[in-house]
Amino acid sequence: MWIDRFVFFPDRRVGPPPPGVEERWIVTPDGLRLHAWSVPARAGDPVLLWSHGNAGNIDSRRAVLGALAARGLGVLAYDYRGYGRSEGSPSEPGVYLDGEWGARIEDIVVVTGDGVMAMNQQPHDLVVVPVG
């Protein structure tokens, strides 16, 4: 859709993950592969599913990823379709599909570019962590 050009500002350039961060690939419900970086959680610690804002990619947020991990949280940060190394092109319906797989994960906290929200109906934990 033409409006997507005014909403999504992806950056395709992604460097190697920071030390201690694993590269992951996630398949969306419609079959696209999304690129992600993962910081494993320690036993019993929460994992944050991080959906970044509408510009850049996970590489442009590496400092925040490190700050979250330094606070003891596991983090799974992914790029929407058309961002970074993820397949496809960005669109509003596509972004919803990209987050849909995360809604099926239990015991996860979802962090968006503008705040924190839980996608599960009844999350077991909701953690708000200052990153500044």
Written overview of the protein:
There is one protein chain. The radius of gyration is 14 Å and the shape is globular. It has helices spanning 62-70, 92-103; strands spanning 9-10, 22-27, 33-39, 47-51, 55-56, 74-78, 108-112, 115-117. Helix content is 16%, strand content 27%. The model is unreliable at 114-132 (pLDDT under 50). It is of the alpha/beta class.
In brief:
The protein has helices spanning 62-70, 92-103, and strands at 9-10, 22-27, 33-39, 47-51, 55-56, 74-78, 108-112, 115-117. With 132 residues, it is an alpha/beta fold.
Per CATH, which architecture?
3-Layer(aba) Sandwich
Strand order of the largest sheet: 2-3-6-4-7-8
Structure class: alpha/beta
Order of helices and strands: EEEEEHEHEE
Instruction: Give the C-level CATH assignment.
Output: Alpha Beta
Shape verdict: globular
For the termini, the CA-CA separation is: 35 Å
Q: Please give the oligomerization state of what you see.
A: single chain
Annotation, overall tally of beta strands = 8
Low-confidence stretches: 114-132
Count of separate structural domains:
1
Strand content: 25-35%
**CATH third-level topology:** Rossmann fold
Task: Work out the helix count.
Answer: 2
Largest sheet: 6 strands, mixed
CATH H-level superfamily title: Alpha/Beta hydrolase fold, catalytic domain
What is the average of the pLDDT values?
A: 76
Give the proportion of residues in helices.
Answer: 10-25%
Cα-atom Rg, whole angstroms?
14 Å
